[in-house]
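Ticket #4471: structure export looks truncated?
Reporter: QA, pipeline team
Priority: medium

Steps to reproduce: submit the single chain below to the structure queue and open the exported record.
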Amino acid sequence: MMMPDDKIPFWRAKKMSEMTPKEWESLCDGCGRCCLNKLTDVDTNETVYTDVGCKLLDGQTCRCTDYKNRQAKVRDCVRLTPRNVKRLTWLPPTCGYRLVAEGRDLAWWHPLVSGDPDTVHTAGISVRGKVSASEKDVPDERLVDFIVKWPGKWPKGSKGKTRK
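Actual output as written to the record:
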């Protein structure tokens, strides 16, 4: 049974390039995984995550403390756009931008689906309680000591109600 157009969520009804700025920003689930420092394996070109947060990441709220000025303050902060989101291989598999770009639906814990910004935390998706240090305190050459696998994986039981 087809739903009327006004009942289809915008992320299913529109191309990413057609979304309003507000709709685009709302695809972010607030997990903070993309704000973890990442390294690229020189042999495999694979991205590996660390549990070291960007200097602007608030580990409790999992949000940027200066979102508006982040790119001026963090040299390698990447602004997601409909044009680059499909090319960014380091976006976590749980990322709303990545899921929509891949033609998949948002997960049950995404605030746009659940109606609650805290479900990203209760589902274990966010970095809350998992950031071991700030990049302010960890020199680049020590980042290899903080490599973790969890940001590149779906937590057990979190996939649940997603649709392809």
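Status: closed, not a bug. The export was complete when the record was re-opened. Leaving a note from the reviewer for reference: The chain has one domain: 20-152.
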